[in-house]
Design a protein that fits this description.
The chain is an alpha/beta fold. The protein has a single domain, classed as Aldolase class I (TIM Barrel), CATH 3.20.20.70. The protein is 32% helix and 20% strand. It has an 8-stranded parallel beta sheet. It catalyses: D-ribulose 5-phosphate = D-xylulose 5-phosphate. Substrate binds at residues 9, 67, 143-146, 176-178.
Length: 216
């Protein structure tokens, strides 16, 4: 996979015109679809599940990146893969048996990511970094779109890159939360490979042009 990837978050799309927004992403220079799944327990919000995944599967022509903000994610990963997920990311904080869950995702045919909340240290991934395909660093507290970017994320990107290199690992680094035209270039320069952008894209007067600018 190439770096400097943009993954528009469908959490910020217009759900009354979801297929239209999916087609916009298909036309654009975006690389992935990012889908946030929330259960109202792990985070204080509820978002979409399998019905929306079916719509995405029918219309999306690009890589589908699913972020599970749920408790007991191991109970649902196989079904999300069956519904079209190419990558499934689970929270370190939600997985009692993280290695087992990662292997389950990969055995079912998808790539596996691990997500860290803003206050979770990168060092906790040391024993699994060589086994995973992606590290997703939350740059806001998960649960709601439109939050302010946490500046400490730049340091965490550097720490994650160091951990990957020191273990000869190949995991990509994804950043989710508060990404916009003002910080995208600096995030890529810091070592991020994938940026999730929600409000920056879908509140823009020209979403396709915004996606293009985020990649510069």
């Amino acid at each position: 996979m190439k770096t400097k990837l943009i993954a528009p978050s469908l959490l910020s799309a217009d759900f009354g015109h979801l297929s239209r927004d999916i087609e916009m992403i298909n036309r654009s220079q975006a690389d992935w679809f990012h889908i946030d799944v929330m259960d109202g327990r792990f985070v204080p919000n509820i978002s979409f599940g399998f019905p929306v995944m079916n719509t995405v599967r029918q219309h999306a022509k690009k890589f589908v990146d699913v972020h599970l903000m749920i408790v007991e994610p191991e109970r649902y990963v196989e079904e999300f893969i069956q519904h079209g997920a190419d990558l499934v990311s689970v929270h370190y904080e939600a997985c009692i048996h993280l290695h087992r869950t990662v292997k389950l995702i990969q055995e079912k045919g998808a790539k596996a990511g691990v997500v860290l909340n803003p206050s979770t240290p990168v060092l906790l991934l040391e024993d699994i970094i060589s086994e995973i395909d992606l590290v997703l660093l939350m740059s806001v507290n998960p649960g709601f779109g439109g939050q302010k970017f946490i500046e400490n994320t730049y340091r965490k990107i550097a720490e994650t890159k160091d951990l990957i290199l020191s273990n000869n690992a190949t995991a990509l680094i994804e950043v989710d939360g508060g990404v916009n035209l003002e910080n995208a270039s600096r995030l890529f320069d810091a070592g991020a490979d994938v940026l999730v952008a929600g409000n920056a894209v879908f509140s823009s007067e020209d979403p396709e042009r915004t996606i293009e600018l985020l990649k510069i």
